[in-house]
Amino acid sequence: MKKSYVLHIMIALIIACGWFSCTKKMVTEPPLAMTVKTNIPLSNNAGDPTVYDSVQSLTLEFSAPVIANTLAGNIKLFKVTVDGELEEPAELVTNAQTPALVQVLKKDGTQFSEGDEYKIAINRNVKSTTGTSMENDFTGYFAINYTFTLGSAGIAALDQQRSLIICISDIHLGVSDVFAEIKTNRDALALFLNQIRTAPNVRELVIAGDLIDEWFIPATEDALCGYATQREFVQAIAANNKSVIDAFNNIIQDGKIKVTYVPGNHDLLITAEDIAGIFPGINQARDAMQGLGAYSPDTPAGIVFEHGHRYNFFCAPDPISNQAIAPGSILPPGYFFTRIAVQSVMEGHPQAGGVMPTVTANSLGESQTLAFYYWSIWKQLITDYPVSASFDEKIIKANIGGFTGPYSINDLLPFQLTPGGFIDVKLYKGIQDSWEEQQTLNNVAVKIPAEEALTRAALAAETDNQAVVQYFTNPTDKRLVVFGHSHEARIIPSVNNKGEKAIYANSGTWIDKNKLPTRTFVVITPQKSNDSAPVFVNLYHYSQNGDITKMDVQALTGLNQ
After folding, report:
1. What is the SS3 assignment for 73-101?
2. Residue 270 CB-half CA count within 13 A
3. Whose CA, among 127, 316, 534, 552, lies 20 to 30 Å from 237?
4. 98: alpha, beta or left, given left = phi > 0 and alpha = psi -120 to 50?
5. Residue range 346-374: average pLDDT?
6. 385-407: b or e for each residue (b if 16 or more CB lie within 10 Å)?
7. Cβ–Cβ under 8 Å, residues 384 and 352
8. Average predicted confidence (pLDDT) for the chain
9. Residue 489 to residues 214, 417, 428, Cα–Cα distance (Å)
C-alpha cells in the first residue's frame, strides 16, 4: 500500500507540473512597442538643431517591418521658419526586401537646402506587420550648414546676398619684426583679407581687439621704440605691416563691407584718432572708458563682440592705481607682465639675475590675503620668464600712459619687511581693494569677486566663463557672444536665463606661434530669409596657402532679422 500510494502521488505531481508547464507556454507576452532610429542623429529641440554639412535623404529604421499604407499622413517633413513650421512636400520610399526601412526625401529630389532647419514628425499610428505601433510620437530636428567659401562666385545658397559677419581678433601687428608676434602669418592674413574684399556674401568684418600691439616690447626697449609720440609709433606699426594695413583699407574704401574695430588690452592706449589715422573711415566701437568697447550689429538682434579683457584683473583698464606716480594712467599690471616676459624670450630664458623675495601669508584680513595671491602670481611669472638683470635694476622703460619710468622688477613685486608681516608693493598699491570700483568704472555688469579674478586670471576658461556670467545667466538680450583675448578659438553652446540656447565663440588669434591653431576666424550667417530659422556660427582655420577648414559649427534659432 505504501508503494502504490507514493506512486500515485508522483504521477499526480508529474501531471500537475506538466499541466502548469503547458499553461505557462500558452501565456504570451504583449508585443514590444515599435521603435525608430535615424541614419543621422537628430535633436529633440527645435532651438538647438543638429547641424550637418549636407543631407541627401533621411532614413528611418523601424524595429519591425512597417505596413506601407500606414505611412502616408503619419510621417511628415517640415521646414522650420522664423514664423513657425511649413510642411515640406516629401516622398516616402520603401523597399519590399527591407520593409523596416523608410527613406524620406524632398519631393523634388534635391538635397535638403543649405541654411534651412527641418523637422521630421512620425505619428505613432504607423503600424508594423506584427501588429505593433510606437508608444509615442517621434520628433527630430536637423539643420544644413552652408558650403562656405570666400571665392568670388560666392555661396550658392545665398545667391549673392551680403549677410555674413566675419570676426577676427588678436592680430598683434608689431612695430619691429625683431620681436613682433606676427611675421610668418602676415602674408596669409593679407591674402585672407583680399579674399574677403572680393567675396560677394560678406556684409561685415569685425576686429575684436589687439589689432596692433603696444605691449609686446622688450622691457629694456623704449616703450615707444624711440618714436616721439604714440601717433608716430602707430604710423610705424602701419609701415611695418603695410600689406595688411593696405588690405584692410581696400575693404574700407570699397564701402561694400562694414569694418568695425573694438579695442583690446594690447592696444588699450591707442586712441580713436590713432586708429583713424591709419584706417580712414573705419567704424570704431568704444566705451566711455578708453581701451574698452563692445559692438552689436544692427541685424540680427542679440549679438555682441568684445575683446574680453574687461573681465581680467591684470588686463582691464585701471584708472585708480598709481595716480600719484602716473597721473591719468589706466595701464593695468599686465602691461608690465608682458614687457618682462618679452625680455625673457628675447634673452632666451636666461638664468634669473635676481631672487624672488619671500612673502608668507598672514592673518591681517581679506585685503592681505588677496595681496598674497597677487604676489603668488608675480612669483609664477618671474619663475616662468626669468631675465638676466637684477631685480633692483631699472630695466623697464615705461615712458607711456602717464608713467615716466624706468622701473625695476622690485617696483612691481609685493614684499614683506618681516615674515608674516604686512604685504606691501610700490606700483599698484592697493589694487586688490580697488577691483570692485574698477569694475564699476569699466561697466562690468556682474561684478567678479577679487579672489576669483586674481586666481583665475590666467585661465582661458575664465574668459569663456565670463561670456556666460555677463550675458547669458545675467538677463540681457544677447544670445551670441564673441570674444578674443585668450588666443584659444572655440565655440561653446550654452543656455540663457530664459532657457533658450545661447552660443559663445572665441575667434582665436593670427600670431605666428600659439598652443592652439592660429589663423582662425568666426563666421556668423544670419537667416537667409523669413522662410529660414537658423543662424549659423562657424569657426574656421585658414592655412598659409588660403585653404579653409571648418573647426566647429553651431546653429541658433530665434535671432530675427
Report:
1. CCEEEEEEECCEEEEECEEEEECCCCCCE
2. 30
3. 316
4. beta
5. 95
6. bbbebebebebbbbebbbbebbb
7. no
8. 93
9. 23, 44, 32
- Residue 426 is placed in which grid cell? 610700490
Helices 366-384 and 333-346 sit at what angle, rounded to 10 degrees?
20
Share of the chain above pLDDT 90, in %: 91
Planar angle of CA 45, 47, 48, nearest 5 degrees: 70
For 102-119, b/e burial (b = at least 16 CB within 10 A) is bbbbbeeeeebbbbbbbb
Label the pairing between strands 480-483 and 303-306: parallel
> What domains are defined for the chain?
36-144 (2.60.40.1220), 156-312+457-557 (3.60.21.10), 313-456 (no CATH)
pLDDT digits (tens, 9 = 90+) for 447-490: 999 999 999 999 999 999 999 999 999 999 999 999 999 999 99
At 171, phi and psi to the nearest 5?
-85, -40
Reply yes or no on whether the pLDDT at 99 is more than 50: yes
Which cell numbers hold the place of 268?
A: 588699450
Question: How high is the pLDDT of residue 239?
Answer: 98
Mean pLDDT of 104-123: 95
**Short-list 148, 175, 176, 179, CA closest to 163:** 148
Q: pLDDT value at position 29?
A: 59
Q: Structure pTM? A: 0.92
Give the pairing type, strands 501-506 and 490-495: antiparallel
DSSP conformational letter for 516: S
23-27, 110-114, 354-358, 482-486: the lowest-pLDDT one: 23-27
Query: Can you give the three-state secondary structure of 243-312, one letter per residue?
Result: HHHHHHHHHHHHCCCEEEEECCCCCCCCCHHHHHHHCCCCEECCCCCCCCCEECCCCCCCEEEECCHHHC
What pLDDT is recorded for position 3? 42
How many Å apart are CA 519 and CA 508, to the nearest integer?
8
User: What span, in angstroms and rounded, lies between the C-alpha atoms of 36 and 60?
Assistant: 6
262 closest CA partner among 309, 312, 314, 332: 309
**257, 196 Cβ separation under 8 angstroms:** yes
pLDDT category, 529, cuts 50, 70, 90? confident
Tell me what the mean pLDDT of segment 249-259 comes to: 98
pLDDT attached to residue 357: 86
Q: Which amino acid is at 344?
A: S
230-240 helix and 242-254 helix, angle to the nearest 10 degrees: 100
Distances (CA, A) of 308 to 209, 313, 463, 483, 487: 9, 11, 6, 5, 11
φ and ψ at residue 395, rounded to 5 degrees: -95, -20
> What are the residues whose beta carbons fall under 8 Å from the beta carbon of 414, sequence distance 6 or more?
359, 371, 372, 374, 375, 378, 423, 424, 425
The percent of residues above 70 in pLDDT, for the chain, comes to 94
Taking phi first (over 0 means left), then psi (-120 to 50 degrees means alpha), and beta for anything else, what does residue 402 get? left
Looking at residue 332, the DSSP 8-state letter turns out to be -
Count Cβ neighbours within 10 Å for each residue of 466-494 and write b for 16 or more, e otherwise.
Answer: bbbbbbbeeebebbbbbbbbbbbbbbbeb
